[in-house]
Amino acid sequence: MKNFISLTIIGLLFAACGGGDDSGSPEAVNAAPTVPALKAPIDNKLCVDNTVSFQWDLSTDSNKDAITYQIQVAKENTFAQIVKSSEVTTNDTSIALEKNTAYYWRVKATDNKGLASSYSSTFKLYTSGDAVVNHLPFSPELIQPAVNSLLNTATASLKWKATDVDSNDVLTYDVLTYDVYFGKTNPPTAKISENTSATSLDITLESTTQYFWKIVVKDNKGGETIGQIWKFKTN
């Protein structure tokens, strides 16, 4: 009996002193790199050379992980169809593009564990053509209401913006006007405003209805760009 008690006490002492191996520190939680900030070409740039040099600020990684960058180039601002995509470990790359074409580009950073940042903001550029005297406007950009938003009002203000590289040149200055298509069908066919220079339009809404709308941007030299279709619902 006495031997049993002694062995029990010794066992308890070993259990109390042994524990687990707590000499190691907890593994750090992996964090995504910061979002790259685009530098060049600047937004709305007219690029004379169709081999374009893209640059952005380096991302940082709190875990000191190695970073790669993915650049995407598309012909529409939704990036539904990517025309050029490249992965690099530096913060610049050159890409050959078609002449006389509008492009949109963005970059994201990914660490060596596969965790990626969000995409950067989107910049626009236009590649110059041979003896081109006019460039088409860029696709219109949505301001409000947000796509798939739910509105609780009987009226709404449609707002958008658009740019044209020729607007920065005093010799080829373009004045932009807009046609607004709005309705309950996709695509919308009713033109509710034509050749307006305003970038907003107030409308009356019905309850529990889904609406679709789009903007056609026109310059004063006959150039025309059809925007994507946006949609929202009412409560």
TrEMBL record:
PROSITE patterns: FN3 (PS50853), PROKAR_LIPOPROTEIN (PS51257)
Gene3D superfamilies referenced in this protein's UniProt entry, alphabetically: Immunoglobulins
Alphabetized InterPro entries for the sequence: FN3_dom (IPR003961), FN3_sf (IPR036116), Ig-like_fold (IPR013783)
Pfam family, one: Ig_Rha78A_N
Domain Fibronectin type-III: 32-130
Protein name as annotated: Fibronectin type-III domain-containing protein
Biological source species: Flavobacterium collinsii
High-level lineage: Bacteria, Pseudomonadati, Bacteroidota, Flavobacteriia, Flavobacteriales
